[in-house]
């Protein structure tokens, strides 16, 4: 592969993807709004670009084989805040991909596109959209955009509904954890699978308590190895009885299912910032 574009390269998840992606193509172009992303890996360059600026994105994607799209506002916020980077930015990525003849977009979607489903239902990749926030609504839009651009423009997409890609610090994460190693494996499979058309897959590790079913995306060859059960004894010992009437504990979206629209869903999640340094 000649050229891969990685958006959101300055983010926490992007920081773990840069090195492995640099080994999958002759050229990796990392991009974000930050001034830089530190030291560059062999074959990697960095271009500062704004997702809401179509001309910048169209120029960025010129000559690319694939786009790994992780750029976004990464929390619940007002609709106006979400609109630019998460909705208009998504349109700009897929339209620029189509105009440039990009083969595939590998997209960091989210469990929050279906966040109001019960975690007892063991939903599959064909579960209907049921967003829990404006943030989740934007993920629904992008997934539908991806489907549309496959049907009408022939741009393949894999929409990875990531659950919880962060250190395990709470009981919910015993089911929703996606380790960084499994994240890398998932993205690599989304890139290397010969044909994907429009595909949805859950980004989650091989947890005993996993609340979603990836059976219909098995052709991607994604076989996660890590299991959050190793943290269960310690986490559950520190967890008080949960309120079964609270959507936070009963829905797959967790805290995002219970916050008021526009309010941060990450505020109570104790996300540890362990961004990888290059």
From TrEMBL:
Coiled coil (residue ranges): none
Residue ranges annotated for the NAD-dependent epimerase/dehydratase domain, each copy included: 4-162
Record carries keyword Oxidoreductase: yes
This protein's UniProt keywords: NAD, Oxidoreductase
A Pfam entry, by short name: Epimerase
Tagged with keyword NAD: yes
Record-linked SUPFAM superfamilies: NAD(P)-binding Rossmann-fold domains (SSF51735)
Family annotation (InterPro entries): Epimerase_deHydtase, NAD(P)-bd_dom_sf
Top-rank taxon, per record: Bacteria
Family: Belongs to the NAD(P)-dependent epimerase/dehydratase family.
Protein name from the UniProt record: 3-beta hydroxysteroid dehydrogenase/isomerase
């Amino acid at each position: 592969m000649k050229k891969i574009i990685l958006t959101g390269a300055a983010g926490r998840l992007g920081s773990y993807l840069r090195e492995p992606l640099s080994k999958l193509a002759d050229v990796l172009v990392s991009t974000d709004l930050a001034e830089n992303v530190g030291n560059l890996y062999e074959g990697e360059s960095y271009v500062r670009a704004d997702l809401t600026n179509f001309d910048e994105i169209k120029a960025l994607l010129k000559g690319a084989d694939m786009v790994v799209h992780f750029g976004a506002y990464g929390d619940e916020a007002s609709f106006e805040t979400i609109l630019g980077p998460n909705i208009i930015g998504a349109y700009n990525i897929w339209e620029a991909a189509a105009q440039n003849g990009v083969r595939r977009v590998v997209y960091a979607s989210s469990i929050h596109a279906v966040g109001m489903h019960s975690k007892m239902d063991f939903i599959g990749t064909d579960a209907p959209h049921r967003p829990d926030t404006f943030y989740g609504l934007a993920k629904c839009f992008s997934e539908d955009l991806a489907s549309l651009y496959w049907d009408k423009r022939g741009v393949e997409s894999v929409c990875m509904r990531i659950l919880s890609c962060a250190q395990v610090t709470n009981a919910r994460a015993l089911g929703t954890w996606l380790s960084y190693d499994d994240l890398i494996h998932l993205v690599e499979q989304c890139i290397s699978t010969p044909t994907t058309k429009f595909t949805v897959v859950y980004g989650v590790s091989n947890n005993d308590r996993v609340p979603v079913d990836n059976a219909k995306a098995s052709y991607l060859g994604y076989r996660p190895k890590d299991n959050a059960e190793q943290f269960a004894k310690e986490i559950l010992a520190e967890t008080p009885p949960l309120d079964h009437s609270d959507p936070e504990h009963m829905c797959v979206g967790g805290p995002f299912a219970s916050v008021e629209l526009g309010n941060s869903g990450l505020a109570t999640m104790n996300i540890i910032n362990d961004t990888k340094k290059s």
